[in-house]
Amino acid sequence: MDTISRRKFLQLSGAAAVGASAAMLSLEDIAQAAIARPLPLGTPIVVVVTLYGGNDGLNTVVPYTDSLYYSLRPDISYKPEKVPPLADGLGLNPAMTEMKSLWDQKKMAIIRGVGYPYPDHSHFSSMAIWQTASPISHISTGWLGRWLDSQTADPMLAISLGSVPPPLFAGAKRSGSALPLGGLVVPSGKLGMRCQTLSKPSLSDSPLMASAATSMGSLFNLSSNVTSVLQSPAPAAPDLPVTNGGNAGGDTSLQQQLDLVAKLIVAGAPTRAWSVSLGGFDTHANEANAQAALLGNVSYSVSRFMNQLKGSGRASDVTVMIYSEFGRRVKANASQGTDHGTSGPVFVIGDRINGGFYGDQPSLSKLVDGDLVVTTDFRDIYASILERDLKADPAQILNGWKGRVNLLYKQ
Amino acid sequence: MENQRLELSRLYARFAFGPMPGQFTQSLTAGFAVSAQNLLNTSVADPQLDSLLPPSLPDLGNRPSQADVAASKAFTKALQVQAMEMTMWWLDRMAITHNPLLERMTWFWHGHWATSIDKVNFALPMFNQNQTLRANALGNFRTMAHAMFHDGALQIWLDGNDNIKGAPNENLSREFMELFALGVNNYTEDDVKAVARAFTGYQAVRSTGVVTFNPKRHDTDLIKLFGSSTPLDGDSAVDLIVSRNENVSFIAQRLWYRFISSSQPLESRFGIESAFANRDIANTMKVLVTGGALSVPDYSVVRQPVEWFIAICRAFSIKPSALKPSTLVLSNLQKMAQVPFLPPNVGGWPTDEAWLSSASAQFRIAFASLIAKQVDFTSLNAVSSEKRIDYVKDLLGIYSFSARTFTALTNAKDDLQQFFVLAVCSPEFVVNA
Lengths: 411, 433
Prior knowledge:
The complex is a heterodimer of chains A (411) and B (433).
Chain A: H1 6-12, H2 27-36, E1 45-51, E2 61-62, H3 67-72, E3 85-87, E4 90-92, H4 97-104, E5 108-115, H5 123-132, H6 143-149, E6 158-161, E7 177-179, H7 189-198, H8 207-217, H9 254-267, E8 273-278, H10 287-309, E9 318-324, E10 344-349, E11 356-358, E12 376-377, H11 378-388, H12 394-397
Parallel strand pairs in A: 1-8, 1-9, 5-11, 5-12, 6-7, 6-8
Antiparallel strand pairs in A: 2-4, 3-4, 5-10, 9-10
Chain B: H1 2-15, H2 23-30, H3 32-40, H4 47-50, H5 69-96, H6 100-112, H7 117-120, H8 123-136, H9 141-149, H10 152-157, H11 171-181, H12 189-198, E1 202-204, E2 211-213, E3 222-225, E4 228-231, H13 234-243, H14 245-259, H15 272-275, H16 281-290, E5 301-302, H17 305-315, H18 328-335, H19 358-372, H20 378-382, H21 388-395, H22 403-411, H23 416-425, H24 427-430, E6 431-432
Antiparallel strand pairs in B: 1-2, 3-4, 5-6
């Protein structure tokens, strides 16, 4: 199913317009920029992976030595012998073998108990809070959108995969661009010329009509000077296994998205922030198989991505952050699934990351209304990434936020 | 006069999927008030629509064992064929109906109670839901909310079958309040848990959507909801939810958001909330249409892909199922990311800018070019080439063309296929002024 729902998360949460409207790029545009003005080697790059639907953190980083874990969810717990151990009595979901190897190489940080104050169990509100980094007041700009506002205008600076850009890239002045999977085919000949006429701005256009004209116009802003760096279109999205978590948004082709991002990073795209996503984590029923298939996909795709960067000289430039809008209820429901919960683990991966655990594991004996407590505020992670990778002042972008995840980065 | 043209353009684009041939010019003469009254009357005799056969949807029963490869393949094929026939049937209805407000409202409610066949799998329960939405589309919201609670497709979509006494599943409970009836932040987490308990014990048959109540699985204890404790079943909980004041402002805002503006806030001076005070949908639509909002210049909207396609069909007398090959319509709507019965999530489809990417522009031009090859251009050809631009402007119910679009159309006025593609892909048609 082709999913274009992310903008919806902001709209339903009551935030009004989604900042500045986003440009749509073609592969050729980015290839052209990679040739003309490649990103200098050594410039940090951030890749944000959004897991839509609410990933069950307790079955991702599993407290396999805690008897409460087994008594609270007898039918959907992983047996101790199945769980690859990490440390502190915690292990990784058995489907995440490739990411276990990143952990062993000390390239993967797991920040435990991450969430925001006053948890809201709505997909839409929670995702809006994560993407805007504004837990109390509704605002229409995303945290990386506000970083874009602080930079020189450049449509290549932040790119999301898929045809609708996510709210996290929406700034007040400018927004990240979107790269649709599969590439664009542009009308040619007389029709192409006439469509270009049709895409010129007009004084009588309403703002939406102007956007309609601009979107058509950017179809034609192509360079004729593109080399063979990136000519082949992206492969078709492989079908995922049928899951029970499919009603809360997100794209389904994570591997395809990350393959393309790797290719563009290696080519030298002048892009500092990338956004990719995977949907299907809303596992109210029959969770075990569905979640394992999804986490296996995340694990394989991310580790494949890291491998593709090797030998490019940029492997140590890249930081990957993986998050979801909330964790799930500790106690299982009657349908071998879990309902919407609160905090969950966030993964941060890269050569410059100090692998290991950060933040306290929420206790299963001290639940609040049946939910895990939040031990780390999500903005601590954003602040560290903004400061260390994007060289920005986190306080300016995160409304004065001072917290960090200490020692997350090397040096 | 210009204001009348704006109001009429919006009347047809937003509430009728676009005018049929001749309708817009007649309305310019008849005036807005008469045209609005005609549109709001949804009991016009419609023999053509009555003769449209509903899709044949025999109960397919349980999925055969995977070991039986031939039977499994045939079963999957039957699921696909039924879904496709049902979708084309609905698109045909939208395109040919003479009571377009009723189909338009059914389409609105489909996006509101957004349920996807992607998880429901079977067409029959989706078809039954579609009939329920149509039967209640202009009725009373309270009646609709009860009918939708008992709707099999919705129950399956939001895990109602798994909601059992002692271990409730909150999916339906939460979305019922957040997305269907009250809006986010208008209820507490305790309310979600309470309503989930009230909703326990309802079971839907997957292949048919028939819902039955199983008292053994229902939580009969006292349930504290909105401050008072009583035993509750699904219907009594739905009643309490719909009785909340927040239901009035929430539904009024959802109608405003889809029909008037997704970026400008609802204004009380138009009287939409008070019109919905007794949950009367027809009366609320009347106020939405005639209350003055249609003449405010700021409120433009982007036609969603299905609305764009159906407006073309209505203007050029195209029956969607008659387009060849039979997969043309759905494969192109899929590329444009909007297929009926397949909303992306329980929040429904996005609005406005979300449909204005270069990718959508490209897919729109490609789809229009394919349709152009099958359009009957006899009447367009009969108009002299000097008058063609004005003619197509009225045919499509467009408020006005900018100089840029006028130039593009003038350049193509002797190539009818390109003229058609440019007109339906113009910013002035893609966006309703």
